[in-house]
Structure to design on (283 residues):
């Protein structure tokens, strides 16, 4: 899609100003759930988002019944979540990295779609759904292996062809009381997917890696994040303190709008496509 096409379809866009702010600069990128909606994964905060009560780390660790509910819902959503495909926005960011315009990417998403689209320097700030870790002994397992154990121990959990997918790969199960949840095969401890739950801190290694991407860039591009979560907003503040141009693409307001040099109120996929079409030529 061309810049002119986007400007005709969305009067609030100022793609030309975004290009001027980003062209010729090394770009750090921060993405959120709004980037993955075109892949069929809903976000928590969009206007049409389903009403959700995300699992907190306190409930997961301290309440066996809630942990069981989480594992059933997460398993039912796993195949659908894992079968989603990168969209044009993911592809545009990978293209910009390969062209040398994007220096690195920080994502708040756990879907792994940036890596599957071909982006290479990716910091998954809130973890990912590909791995599982024992909270007691630290043993790590692949999600596929844990999913196979869940289905072996609970034949009733035949994965449906279509499920109501949540932003974190979870669905809302109708029943879970009799389900056997997986435990660590090394020590029998509690297993947890490698995602940052609500109420949990971002691991220091991910935090440092995200800071390094912002510090090593000359401009910051935010795509599909309302910046309501502090882990993302702190990176915008970090860029602002460094005097870097900040461009935000998001449908609706964000917590970082007052820090943005350019705010584009529109869908991420078509906007990123248009930006990539111009910025790759300016590298």
């Amino acid at each position: 899609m061309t810049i002119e096409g986007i400007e005709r379809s969305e009067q609030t866009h100022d793609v030309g100003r975004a290009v001027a702010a980003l062209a010729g600069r090394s770009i750090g990128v921060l993405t959120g759930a709004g980037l993955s909606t075109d892949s069929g994964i809903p976000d928590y905060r969009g206007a049409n988002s389903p009403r959700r009560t995300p699992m907190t780390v306190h409930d997961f660790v301290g309440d066996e019944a809630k942990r069981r509910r989480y594992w059933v819902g997460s398993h039912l959503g796993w195949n659908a979540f894992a079968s989603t495909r990168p969209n044009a926005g993911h592809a545009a960011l990978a293209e910009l990295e390969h062209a040398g315009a994007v220096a690195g990417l920080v994502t708040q998403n756990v879907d792994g779609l940036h890596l599957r689209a071909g982006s290479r320097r990716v910091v998954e700030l809130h973890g990912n759904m590909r791995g599982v870790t024992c909270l007691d002994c630290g043993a790590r397992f692949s999600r596929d292996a844990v999913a196979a154990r869940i289905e072996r121990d609970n034949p009733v959990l035949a994965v449906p062809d279509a499920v109501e997918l949540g932003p974190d790969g979870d669905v809302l199960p109708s029943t879970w009381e009799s389900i056997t949840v997986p435990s660590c095969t090394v020590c029998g401890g509690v297993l947890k997917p490698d995602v940052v739950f609500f109420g949990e801190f971002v691991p220091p290694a991910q935090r440092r890696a995200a800071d390094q991407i912002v510090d090593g860039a000359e401009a910051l591009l935010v795509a599909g994040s309302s910046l309501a979560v502090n882990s993302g907003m702190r990176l915008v503040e970090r860029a602002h303190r460094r005097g870097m141009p900040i461009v935000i693409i998001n449908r609706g307001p964000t917590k970082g709008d007052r820090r943005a040099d350019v705010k584009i109120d529109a869908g991420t996929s078509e906007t990123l496509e248009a930006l990539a079409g111009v910025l790759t030529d300016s590298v």
The beta strands are 27-31, 102-107, 122-124, 127-134, 140-142, 191-195, 219-223, 246-249, 262-264. The chain is about 35% helix and 15% strand. The longest helix spans residues 64-82.
